[in-house]
């Protein structure tokens, strides 16, 4: 569903957002309510849809929309199990390209917050990185699906991730009425990275390839995230880490998220992608594997689990081995897929269960 402010000029959108942010910081509840009422009045004649959205009142001839969670067949026991618990959401890929889809996903994240869960978002941004590099004329070279990254490329990677994708997610959370804090793994010594050496088998030999400033997670210090969660923020994290050599490293967002789920003792880990899950035959939608044990998923790496799905499953295995109870791979382009798999019996996707004691 489109929000009415989408039809405003971008500069007017930003002005409205800034005023809403200021209202949200207002410590006096009555004063905040009055300021919001005046803001709605300001838009009532020129943009009645925005006024109705601001005042949370229906337009003439319309009925008030039922809140999202009341429209879904939520199982109370599942909802209660998430209250006060971290839910780590990895958001990326083509599920981030369409604006309407992005708004739906962020609305679902905020619905989890409204439920009483503690959502934490780790995002990728491959399309945004490729677009920016194309705009500035920097050619990308890929080795085994990994982008070779020198210092020049890394500066643009961080610009795309932190400057564009991260800030946009923070903005959308703000539009939904919640506080968000955007940062990367470099902030607060959150993630210490180590250089990745990519290995490719050629016959009976392994060839080592230097990917430049591409890294893996060495360790996680989640103190900053805990501070923000306690202050009622939704943390939004870009997958960049600082190495002990003081270099910035671009880290695969899936693996970054899996390690973060462990460090935060998440009760659930959700990977949002642009397919419905793992299929025995990717050409046959009837072959969706709805449930996997962690050991079965590990056995199928490189067989049933192919290509870009491999790091997603590997990140799930990292999370499960570290104590997360269950991991889900769902289609972020499908309406409410995350809420359905977490809260109902109607979810569509692949759930990987831990068999660790």
What report would you give on this structure?
The chain has 357 residues and is α/β, with parallel strands linked by helices. The chain folds into two domains: 1-65, no CATH class; 68-353, Carbamate kinase, CATH 3.40.1160. 41% of the residues lie in helices and 24% in strands. It is built from 13 helices and 16 strands. It has an eight-stranded mixed beta sheet, sandwiched between helices. Strands 6-7-10-9 form a four-stranded mixed beta barrel. Strands 3-4 form a two-stranded antiparallel ribbon. Helix 2 (29-44) packs antiparallel against helix 3 (48-55) and helix 7 crosses helix 8. The protein is globular and about 75 Å long. The protein starts with 9 loop residues before the first helix and ends with a strand. Residues 57-64 have low confidence and may be disordered.
């Amino acid at each position: 569903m489109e929000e009415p402010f989408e039809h405003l000029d971008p500069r007017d959108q930003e002005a409205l957002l800034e005023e809403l942010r200021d209202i949200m910081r207002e410590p006096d509840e009555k004063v905040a309510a009055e300021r919001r009422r005046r803001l709605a009045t300001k838009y009532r004649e020129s943009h009645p849809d925005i006024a109705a959205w601001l005042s949370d009142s229906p337009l003439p001839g319309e009925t008030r929309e039922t809140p999202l969670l009341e429209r879904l067949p939520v199982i109370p026991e599942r909802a209660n199990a998430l209250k006060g618990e971290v839910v780590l959401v990895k958001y990326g890929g083509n599920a981030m390209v369409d604006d309407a889809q992005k708004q739906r996903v962020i609305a679902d994240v905020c619905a989890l917050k409204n439920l009483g869960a503690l959502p934490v978002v780790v995002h990728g941004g491959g399309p945004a990185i490729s677009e920016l590099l194309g705009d500035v004329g920097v050619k990308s070279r890929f080795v085994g699906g990994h982008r070779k990254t020198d210092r020049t490329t890394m500066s643009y990677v961080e610009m795309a991730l932190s400057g564009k994708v991260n800030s946009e997610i923070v903005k959308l959370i703000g539009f939904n009425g919640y506080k968000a804090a955007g940062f990367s793994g470099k902030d607060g010594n959150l993630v210490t990275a180590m250089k990745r050496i990519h290995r490719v088998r050629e016959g009976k030999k392994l060839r080592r390839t230097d990917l430049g400033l591409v890294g893996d997670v060495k360790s996680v210090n989640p103190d900053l995230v805990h501070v923000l969660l306690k202050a009622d923020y939704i943390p939004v994290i870009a997958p960049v880490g600082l190495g002990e050599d003081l270099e910035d490293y671009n880290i695969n967002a899936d693996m970054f998220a899996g390690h973060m789920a462990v460090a935060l003792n998440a009760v659930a880990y959700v990977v949002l992608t642009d397919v419905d899950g793992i299929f025995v035959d990717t050409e046959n939608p009837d072959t969706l594997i709805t449930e996997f044990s962690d050991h079965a998923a590990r056995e199928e790496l490189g067989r049933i689990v192919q290509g870009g799905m491999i790091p997603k499953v590997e990140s799930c295995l990292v999370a499960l081995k570290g104590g997360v109870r269950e991991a889900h791979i769902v289609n972020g382009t499908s309406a409410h897929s995350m809420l359905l798999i977490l809260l109902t019996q109607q979810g569509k996707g692949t759930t990987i269960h831990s068999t660790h004691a």
